[in-house]
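User: What would this chain look like folded?
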Amino acid sequence: MKSKGPFIVHVVFWFIIALIVVMAVLYTENKLPIRALGITYGVAGVINISIFYINYTLLIPMLVKEQKRYGLYIASIVLLIMAMATLKTVVATLSPDTILKYIDEQGRINYQPITHYALASIFTSGFFVVVSSLLKFAIDWFGNERVQRNLETEKREMELQFLKSQLNPHFLFNSLNNIYSLAYQKSDKTADAVLKLSEIMRYMIYESNDSWVALSKEVEYVQSFIELQKLRFKDGAAVEFTMNGEIDGQHIVPLILISFVENAFKHGVANDPENPIKINIIANQKILHFSVTNKKNNFNKDEMGGVGLHNVERRLQLLYPDRYKLNIVNSATHYTSELMLDI
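Assistant: Here's the prediction, encoded as structure tokens.
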């Protein structure tokens, strides 16, 4: 759909021109009959409008935008101005009593010199050429900016959807591996794991489609994920989950926090009571502080982070530009992810 902005600009411009003409007619001392006014301003108006739109719709698009023939464009403009000024002068010469005649302060009838009228016609024609050029380039520039912004927005949305589409299968793949492990062991926890996974997938598929979700919902999702992971271990996973501050009424981009928790379970030691996975959330009206620390698993040689953290960092760059801080500490024994968000 084309923008109505250019049409409105044109309407406003010609309204201002018409208003100036009306004011000039009303407040001039040289009162002319209606017929004379019609010929004087009607003919001049048609010629000026022709100048404006010949330049606006033909010369600039063809010679400047398409062919880049700037010298030919300048020559065409000069020819257009001279031709239209000549046409006005010829009309004035043929109708001097209508166009050139005026009454001076003493009430005497005089005629404006034709050379003065010709120079004024050149100036007026040049004015409409300049204004039409400025409007054309300004409207095209703003139009191009709007198109560019729309393209950037579409590109950004496509990238976000792509990252999110990678994140969901990534999580599902890891969760199914865990459930497979339980089923292989013929664990009684398998049914509970499948039920918990279905609850988590319901959130991922239906509730996380909005651009923003309640922080409380995202925290519940993280807690459900932790409960699902605990089912993998005979004695449960060693997890310390602490939450301080206010999460009610706060909002966050969905599926931002989960990758850090998932990373801790995948690459860390989750069943050591002396080195539990520590997950801490501190929230207030302005800042969310989220951290995850886990003991490193020396038997897991996979690169820390993987697809999940790479994707979540890219999403942070797109959705929280200059509004987040991510610190990763990878020591010899422990791995810590610390995220601070302006919410």
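Residues 5-150 form one domain. If you want, I can go into more detail on any region.
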